[in-house]
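Example record

Each entry pairs one chain with its bound ligand, pyridoxal-5'-phosphate.
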Amino acid sequence: MKIGSRVNRGLVRPALASIAPYEAGKSIEEVERELGIARVAKLASNEGPFGPFPIARQVLETQSYDLNRYPDANAYRLRAALAGRLGVEIDQIAHGAGADGLISHLSLALLDPGDEVVFGWPSFASYMLSTLKLGAVPKTVPLRDHRYDLEAMLAQIGPKTKIVYVCNPNNPTGTMNSREELDAYFERVPEHVLTVIDQAYLEYIEEPEYPDAIAEYFKQGKRVAVLRSFSKIYGLAGLRIGYAVASKEICAAIAKVRPAFDVGSAAQEAALASLTGEDAEVELARRRSYNAVSVAELGRILRAFGLETIGPAVANFLFVDLGTDSRPFFEQLLKEGVIVRPLHNFGAPTAIRVTAGTSEEHAVLRQALKVVRPSGHNRG
Ligand SMILES: Cc1ncc(COP(=O)(O)O)c(C=O)c1O
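C-alpha cells for the complex follow.
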C-alpha cells in the first residue's frame, strides 16, 4: 500500500462535504513571517489585549511541575468555585475547552441528523459549523437593525428544533438583546427547545438592560444553557477554558460526549485563580473600564476614516460594513501590520470586525488607515 493513499469514497461522513474548517483570525507570528513586518497589531479575534490576571500568572508558574499528571477530568475545584459564586449546584456546571468546546459538546449531546437549530445570522460561525457537522439543519434568521430578532426566531421554531442560540452580545455585531426582549421570548418559546444563551463577553458589559442569564433565566427555571468563557476579559484564550450552566440532565449528557481529559490542569488552575485569587475582582474591574475607553477610542479612529461602526456595541469589538467584499481591505491592512477579521464565515462577507486593543495597537491601526482605504486602493 502506498503511504498516504487515498481513502475510499464514503469513508468520511457526507455531512462534512459542504463544510470549510473554522477559519481563525491570522496570528501575529504568521503575519510577521509571511509579510516580514516587525510591528503587528492583532485586532482580529476578540481576545483581551492583556495576558492572564497577575494571580493566574503566579499559579501558572508553579503548574509546570505537575504536568506529568493528567488533569482532573471533572474539573472539581473549578466547578465547585463556580457553583459557590453563581449560586447553582456543581452538577449544573459543565466545563469545556472554551465556550466553543461547550457548543460542540452540546451539539453532540443533542443533535441527530435532520434536527433543526435556530440562530441569528450573521453570528458566531461555530453555531453553523457544529450544526452542519452532525448533519443537523441550521435555520438562520436575519438580524434586525444588526441585532438578534427574537420574534422572528420564535417563528422559525418547529417540532424538529432542538437548540436555539441567542448570541448576547452578538459576535460579530457587538449588539445585545435586552432583558425585556428575552423575557418576552421566554414567555413564548416552546417547551421542547433548549435555548443556549452565549454570554462569552458578559464581564465587559455595564448596560443595565443586559440580563445575567444565569441569575435571571436559569435560576428562574427556564430551559436554558448559559455559556461563559475565560478567553476574553480573563486573558486565557490560549489555554482554552469555558463553562456552561445548564440542567443536571444536560450536564450529564455533556459529560458523556466530552473527551476524557478535555481541559488541561493549567487551564483549570488559571481559571480558578482568576475567579477566587487575591485582587481578581479589582483586575476584572480595571479591565472592564479599560475596555470601555478602548472601544470608544477605536470607534473614533474608525469613524475618522469614514468607517461607520454599527451599534450600540457593548463588548470589546466593533463591526463595520464596507458594502463591498471585505477581503481586499483586510489584505491591504495586513500589509500595513494590522490584522482585522473579515467575516465571510460569519455570514457577513462585506464587513470586518475590529477588536479593541491598547493605545499602541490603535496607533498602528491609525497609521495603516492613512494609507489604505476600503476599496483596496491605496490613498497614494
Ligand atoms: C459569541 C462567542 N461564543 C463563544 C466564543 C468562543 O470562546 P472560547 O474561546 O471560550 O471558546 C466566542 C469567541 O470569540 C464568541 O465570540
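The longest strand covers residues 348-355.
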